[in-house]
Amino acid sequence: MLLPSIFLFLLGSLEAIPEEYTSDYDLVGFNSNFGDTKYRLADTVYPLLMRLDLDVYLNESRFGGFLRMDIEVREENLQQIVFHQKVESITAMDIVNADNTVINLQFPNPFITDDYYEIVKLNLAGPIPAGNYTITMNYTGIISDNPFDAGLYKGYYFYNNEEVTYATTQFSPYSARRAFPCFDEPKFKSRYVLSVTRDSNLSHTYSNMPIAETIPIGANRIREVFHPTPIISAYLVALHVSDFEETELSSTDARPFKVISRRGALDQHKWAAETGVRITNELDDYLAIMYHEMGQGILMKNYHIAVPDFKFGAMENWGMVNYREAFLLYDENNTNLINKINIATIMAHELAHKWFGNLVSTFWWSNVWIKESFASYFQYFAAHWAIPEFELDYQFVVDHVHNALAHDASLTAKPMNWTDVASNPTVIAHFSTTSYAKAACVLRMMEHFVGFRNFRLALRYYLRENAYGIGTPADVYAALTRAVSEDFQFLRDYPGIDVSAVFDSWVQNPGSPVVKVEVNTVTGDISVSQQRFVISGTRPDHIWHIPLTWTHEGAINFNDTRPKLILSTLSTVIQNTTNLGNNWVIFNIAQSGLYRVNYDDNNWQKIGNYLKGPLRQNIHKLNRAQIVNDLLYFIRSGDVNNTVALDVLDFLRHETDYYVWNAAIGQLQFIHRRFEHMPVAYDAFSTYLLNLLENVIQDLGYDERRTDSTSDILNRMQILNYACNLGHTGCISDSLNKWRAHRANVNQLIPVNYRRYVYCVGLREGDATDYDYLFNQYETSENAADMVVILRALGCTKHEASFNHYLRQSLVNRKIRLQDRTSVVSFGLQGNKENIPLVLNFLYQNYNEIRTAYGGSDRLDIAISSVSGFLTEFTLIQQFQTWVYQNQIGLAESFNTGVGVVNSAIANLQWGNQNVVETYSFIIERIAS
């Protein structure tokens, strides 16, 4: 399952859980498989086969269900069988043994549903022996109108200006129980046989497996029976009922592959169809298990469905992957390069899940990294093998490594193995940067440690030995240990090193370390020590086994990422380094390890001087990116003197590389905004940043060239967007020329990779007619990715009535998807700082309506949290705080989110006050020179 960028849906998801909960029926003395945590089940009862018949009435938003569960009771004298449910009602339930003898149920209360813990308890009249049993039941369910409710839900799209509905599923991590009672934990795996009855005017139903039989039911209904699934967890079951259309542009009989979407979008299937096949082939080859052969006797489908309304980025249901439409459909006239790359990486993520998560599942969500780390790793590398020109091996670093390190800089960061995961809210909370980006970075670090061949061999061992079962961290460690034990060179180079211990230290420790490096230029000795890195607060005592790589100016080698030392203690001294002399040393080659590096001031000065000289590019671009990102975080944390850090960072005025600037822009924006309440310092910093950007803007130019690489195009997109927002006159002038030329001739399209900043400048410098024109483009667009670009740009208008219209549309306009509505608030804040009071008033006056229209309390939390970084005036903070406390009852669970925003805003002002003098002195000196 791929979450939306930055995983915003997690904000505010935690809620208070009572210590005790008394159900309607206290079963004293019963021997049950009800787990101690009350949210989980004991494995004394296990599903073997699930036969599910659903009768779906799409227009009425309801369905009926009949379920037959074959189970194995693994404990003697069981008197109660418990499993999960969150359906509308269970109307009948029976149980028979293997001889088809009816097992008597308790009377009264033969079964009881508990909607708090989302379970049903089947109460037997007397104890039963271990053995096989079959439970049957009839029940009813609701098709939700809210995608954020998950389960089986209803969505819509527009065709010829008419609204058309469909129903699809999102069961991960614990919403299969909304569609059918089941054992809704990943470790409970079984085969499923599904049948779906639907209206005959719809397209055929999609599910995990091919249709085995089609049966007309009366004049207007059709029942479709699907082939049995392989052994899977309940959350991987899927179905889709609609009038959608499909293409088989890259399909063969032996390797079926389809892209499916709403009507009117068939011309946007081709690129995903071709890309998905290439990525599948790469994974087949790397993992040596063929995807299409995983069906346990049935040829597996490889179907990919573009869903207009979707909570997550995509979901890896076996045989039928659901995607948010913008992440699957490609239109060369309306999809920019960033979104094109997203399609490839998200497809790679979901396809990798076929092996990691589907074939081998995690035993419980406390270790969700066991599936998400590999999917996030192959998200970049499988896509890189398929499309090397996208440079995804390098993009992994600035996307995943820097994101993971930023997340780990908080004291609240959780370990990859978070044992506190027990309840539904904590399950959701662990679908986080830790389980995705950080865990993928740990895998990449381990690959550089053990070597490409050993790493691949280990994954093959792991998959083969745990296929159709569950995997644990110990299983992953064992596979790696086995692989390296067969490599005499590894054993020679790392005598006595326990690979399991190295890996486990990253799984068990929260956060990530900073390695402190102090160089003795006289002796050549290098002292290294480790400590957990946090932005603020007391740093906990943790020890990692850190694979250390380094090079130095006297013998530059940024190609060898194999560790020279595993730092397994708090500190050590690396002695007898050759040819070090008075040269700089740089650790963490190509940022192959998940750690920051802080040097002594002398080494920082040497690095800075070298970077500002003509040989700058001798230092690997990923290490230049690392240096920039680390230093900007060290400024925030106070680990490096601001003047020392800024002096090194001044090399950016010569830098033209995408990866280096990508590592810089976000943190430069953060620091810049901290001075916004001090106009003199803020304006000086603006001027300084524009000076830094001038060379890279001149190098890139304002128009694409035929010789541009992927990173050239991406760099132009990020640099010009940043420069226009800072007020760069050349960027604004060029953007206005492009906008006005388009307005004069609508057939002269603005190239897709310019649209984000050109649209924004056009509206920011324009009037109501410009807003109205672009809003009409949004209303008529047929490409979801382009619609998001337009939606972002609409928030740039300075016309007050237009901006208020924009905010209001997020509440009432059906063209703005539920998943995009919170973005309207953040886009409005980013578009113009003059719009901040309007956004705040929108929240103040409409928070109850926002809660409903945006999809629930969690979505209101996201909207409220969006303002945190933009409350840069004390009067606005006071106003916001007053609103929060005056509306404490109405805000309900969102009250704490509002308090957190106030605290964060105050902390931001304080940081700016504490750092302004030194920073201002430095930039004034640089501007003057």
UniProtKB/TrEMBL annotation:
Gene Ontology cellular component annotations, sorted alphabetically: cytoplasm; extracellular space; plasma membrane; side of membrane
Active site positions, chain numbering: 350 (proton acceptor)
Protein name: Aminopeptidase
Chain positions of site Transition state stabilizer: 436
Lineage of source species: Eukaryota, Metazoa, Ecdysozoa, Arthropoda, Hexapoda
Residues binding Zn(2+), per UniProt: 349, 353, 372
Any GO BP: proteolysis
The species this protein was found in: Arctia plantaginis
Cofactor note: Binds 1 zinc ion per subunit.
Signal sequence extent: 1-16
Keyword field: Aminopeptidase, Cell membrane, Glycoprotein, GPI-anchor, Hydrolase, Lipoprotein, Membrane, Metal-binding, Metalloprotease, Protease, Signal, Zinc
EC number: 3.4.11.-
Cited SUPFAM superfamilies: Leukotriene A4 hydrolase N-terminal domain, Metalloproteases ('zincins'), catalytic domain
Membrane topology recorded in Swiss-Prot or TrEMBL: Lipid-anchor; GPI-anchor
